[in-house]
Amino acid sequence: MARNAKLLLPVLNKKELTFLRTALNASIPATITAADPTVGTDVFTLSDAAVKMAITYSRGAGNHYQSSIRQTWTTLKDGNTLTHRDKWRRAIMILKEFLAGAKRYPGGLLIDGLPPIGVPSKRPPIVVREPEALIRWLFFRGMANRQLGRIVECAYCGKWGLRNRARQGMKYCTKQCQQDAHLEGVKRSQNSSIEFAALETSGRRAVRLKQINDRKRQLENAGGALPKALRREKEILDYSERMRTS
Ligand SMILES: [Zn+2]
Fold first, then answer.
1. Which of 11, 41, 179, 243 is 20 to 30 A away from residue 198, measured at CA?
2. Ligand 1 center to residue 142 CA distance, Å?
3. Residue 113 and residue 75: Cα distance in Å, rounded?
């Protein structure tokens, strides 16, 4: 009697996760300038890593597939043509869209356009001939194994980072950025305190506080709430009021 077959979707290893981060941070200009020797560096780095992965994934697919995979990637790698760049750019764009989708629907996504997969096999060979197919396959496994939460677009420096653990609401690429952002926030609120202290000496603090409190009451009567910026201002004014009277 036939039994249900099992398919293993291995967790992304460190190399694969790092590859995704590199891809997300890659800068691939739309044009090739011969004068700039650094142009295309990211493309080469990505293709280098990609060809190695593609060959590993194809194990068991048979010699015919393996040699064709090697050939396709080598042509792609050595070319550094506009077509080649476009392929990477498109793959990275898809990756970013997928990641946004994963954030919106952490419970799961439908992923189409997966590369050809060998059956029957517990650890099936995968045929990856294009940057996009590679990205789809890596994303698929990362999603299945709940690893994508580790990939974060930094709210402070704008780079993509890889955190040690996936946690909800992570905003920074590294601990360093998290600390820097926090420090900057502290400085900003210190600056506002100085501004409000100036308001106080000019006697405008109480006037402003009354304005905000009136607005708050008005909004609450209408079933609304004070906007964030005003809430923050009120907090600081209340604080300085407490400091003044204590
Ligand atoms: Zn950062």
1. 179
2. 22
3. 23
What is the reported pTM?
0.74
- Based on the fold, state whether residues 149 and 207 are members of the same structural domain: no
Task: Please say whether the beta carbons of 21 and 161 come within 8 A.
Answer: yes
Q: Is residue 150 part of a domain?
A: yes
- Tell me how far the alpha carbon of residue 164 lies from the centroid of ligand 1, in angstroms: 14
What is the total count of domains within the chain?
Answer: 2
Please give the Cα distance from 72 to 212 (Å, whole number). 65
User: Stretch 56-71: mean pLDDT, rounded?
Assistant: 87
57 pLDDT band, cuts 50/70/90, is very high
| pLDDT 10s digits, 178-197 | 888 888 887 777 777 666 66
Q: How far is the CA of 172 from the centre of ligand 1 (A)?
A: 5
What domain range includes position 203?
Answer: 176-245
Per the DSSP assignment, residues forming a β-bridge with 162 are: 151
Question: Measured in angstroms, how far is the CA atom of residue 174 from the centroid of ligand 1?
Answer: 6
How far is the centre of ligand 1, averaged over its atoms, from the C-alpha of 180 (Å)?
Answer: 9
* 246, two tokens: 């204590």
**Residue 90, both tokens:** 């498109």
Q: What is the pLDDT of residues 72-114, one digit of tens each?
A: 887 776 656 777 888 999 999 999 999 999 989 988 889 999 9
Q: Are 56 and 109 in the same domain?
A: yes
Whether residues 158 and 36 share a domain: the answer is: yes
